[in-house]
From TrEMBL:
Pfam families: Sigma70_r2, Sigma70_r4_2. One of its GO terms (molecular function) is DNA binding. This is RNA polymerase sigma-70 factor, ECF subfamily. Belongs to the sigma-70 factor family. ECF subfamily. Keywords: Sigma factor, Transcription, Transcription regulation. InterPro entries: RNA_pol_sigma-70-like (IPR039425), RNA_pol_sigma-70_dom (IPR014284), RNA_pol_sigma70_r2 (IPR007627), RNA_pol_sigma70_r4_t2 (IPR013249), RNA_pol_sigma_r2 (IPR013325), RNA_pol_sigma_r3/r4-like (IPR013324), WH-like_DNA-bd_sf (IPR036388). GO terms for biological process: DNA-templated transcription initiation. It comes from Dokdonella immobilis. Residues 28-95 form the RNA polymerase sigma-70 region domain. Residues 125-175 form the RNA polymerase sigma factor 70 region 4 type domain.
Amino acid sequence: MNRPSERIYDEFLVAAAVTGDRRARSRLVARWQPRLHRHAWRLLGDADRARDMVQEAWLEILRGLSRLDDVAAFPAWAYRIATRRCQRECRRSDRSPLVAEESAAEVDSPAPESVGGEFKTELAIVIDAIDALPGPQRAALALFYIDQLSVAEIAIATDVPPGTVKTRLMHARRKVHALLEGEHR
């Protein structure tokens, strides 16, 4: 099994943090804080609410770290805790950006915008297309392609069955493709 060195380092930090190593805990938080914040932001669509939910998630993560049986499971486990915090926040505030994307309306492709007389760069167009996705699709896409989690890990992280993850990825890919096709016509 070929595992990236980043994953191995995270596993080392988790194992060291479990033994009480404060520096390892600090490094673990420093490495994972931005990832968990981006994930919460993708789900909630609000940076301040995301920051608050991740703060609460860290309390739960650090308290439960000693009960984590497999240090390799840390990414999916930590994302799941953050996901559940975001879900609770949505229920508490009567907002629901975590709606199932299967029932969400199709996103119309935006017209290219002019920036300083030039069209957006291709990267900006792709980012805009991803930003137009519903939160669950955006999160699944990012966890798969950016954080390189497997479908099984994403299922754990987002607390949904693997089939739902595959469906979200399929719909997200189709919508991004459709949006990008609309940009290049």
